[in-house]
Amino acid sequence: MKLLTQCRSVNEVLSDYLDGKLNFWSTMLLRGHLLMCSKCRAYLIQFRRVRDLLDDPQQQSVALPDDFDSVMGRAVQRALGDWKSDTK
User: Fold this and answer.
1) Residue 17 counted as domain residue
2) Is 72 within a domain?
3) pTM of full prediction above 0.90
4) Which domain holds residue 15?
C-alpha cells in the first residue's frame, strides 16, 4: 500500500475507502490527510456525489450542453495542475 500522504495516492484509493475496503491503518492515514488537505476533501465530496448519482436508479439521463466537453476538459486540466503542484 502506498503512503497516503500525497494527494495522488489518496485519489487512487478513494473508491476503496468509500466501499470500506481499506484496512484500519490505511483508513486512518487517509482520514488524517483529508483533515489537512482541503483539495482532497473537496474531491472526495465530488467523487461521492458522482458515485451516488450513478448508483441511484431514479436518476434520469439528461442532455448535456453543447460545450460540456470543452468545459470539463478545462476543469480536469486545472485540477490535474493543482494536484501536480501539490505532489512536488
Assistant:
1) yes
2) yes
3) no
4) 7-56+65-86
**DSSP reduced 3-state for 79:** helix
CB 24 within 8 A of CB 54: no
Residue 48 lies in a domain: yes
C-alpha cell at 13: 484509493
Half-sphere exposure of 25 (CA within 13 A, CB side): 3
Dist. CA 12–CA 3, nearest whole Å: 11
Tens of pLDDT along the chain (88 residues)? Answer: 455 667 888 888 889 999 999 999 999 999 999 999 898 999 999 999 888 888 777 766 777 889 989 988 888 888 877 666 655 5
Q: Which helix (H) or strand (E) holds 85?
A: helix 68-86
In a domain, 73, yes or no: yes
* Number of domains within the chain: 1
Q: How far apart, in whole angstroms, are the C-alpha atoms of residue 44 and residue 67?
A: 25
